[in-house]
Amino acid sequence: MTGSPATMNAAVYRRPGEVDIVSLPRPDSVTNALIAVEYCGICGTDLHMMLDGWGTPDAVFGHEWSGRIVEPGATGLDPGTLVVGLPSPVCGTCDLCRAGRTSLCQNRPEAGTAVERGAFAEYVGVPGDRLVVVPPGIEARAAAYTEPLAVALHAVTLSGIADDQSALVTGAGPIGAAIIAILTARGIHTIAVEPGEGRAALATRLGASVRAVGDLEVTAHPGEPVAEAVPVMFETSGARSAIEMGLTQLSPGGIQVLVGTGLDYPKLDTNRIILNELRVTGAFNYDAAGFDDALALIGSGSFPIDELIDADAVPLDHLLPTMQRLRAGEIPGKAMVRP
Ligand SMILES: [Zn+2]
Ligand SMILES: [Zn+2]
Fold it and tell me: Which helix (H) or strand (E) holds 325?
């Protein structure tokens, strides 16, 4: 910690690929709890916001964090309590919230529009209804993995996959790797397509059979499924080619779950969708109980959390170069910042 007690260091996004480490006032703790950030994971969304320019300038990103209560504010939590934060505020009262589909809350702010005050900073200020207390036995580093794991769990929920089915996962970045780990834990066989060497090796360690794109069968007629067709595929790369190719690997009645975002939109083979009654769905954020489910999985002791998180946490001033290495696919696991 540097500076006077009332300030903190934070990584402020300026313009695509430009971040300043500056001293900002600490968040107030009147209603919000003041929390010292322990770890904050770097998300694919953060890359879009800060490298691709989707973010609002002068924001502080970072939503995959764990931290300890310093000043409880109105939350009533004891100082020192380890917590994780729900990054997306939801109203809890709209039709979709009441149906348990909180990721579709009709009163949520549009992604990327607010000037966020996230956890690529020494402290965050968060209201009590957006905090989840970490159960005993889970370390701060593993706890910071709660949000991406909840995202992956939501995609698996939406797929409706059964334990005796198999799946294809395109992209083995942090979300793809988490999905593979979840499926392996359920005894579900996964085929992974991942061109990066490090990530492909991680997918293998997590239990997937890795295939090169060129090894996948292509059928000439859109009504004809491939020999090794799968009922479920998870697309986590956001790459147009992966979305288009993934659809061709589905068995009749299959479902494609889109998790990776991108701006190079695919050309959908609608004839294949019709002839095979395929479904395509997006998966955004998490189930209403997503954080509790993720923490239960992390705390189970049988989940390969050390494979999924990169061994070296980086300081704030390494955030940008680490993001560039993530973009280049040089870091297979979830990269963590330790502000
Ligand atoms: Zn995230
Ligand atoms: Zn709502």
Answer: helix 319-327
For 141, half-sphere exposure in the C-beta direction (CA atoms, 13 angstrom radius) is 15
Domain count, the chain: 2
pLDDT attached to residue 3: 42
Report the alpha-carbon angle 88-337-69, nearest 5: 60
Q: How far is the CA of 220 from the centre of ligand 1 (A)?
A: 38
Take residue 164 and report the two structure tokens written for it: 């005796």
Strand bridging mode 33-41 / 209-211: unpaired
Ligand nearest the Cα of residue 46 is: 1
- pLDDT per position as a tens digit, 56-98: 999 999 999 999 999 999 899 999 999 999 877 788 899 999 9
**Domain range enclosing 326:** 7-145+309-337
User: Euclidean distance between the first and final Cα of the chain, in Å?
Assistant: 9
Out of 240, 263, 282, a domain closes at 282
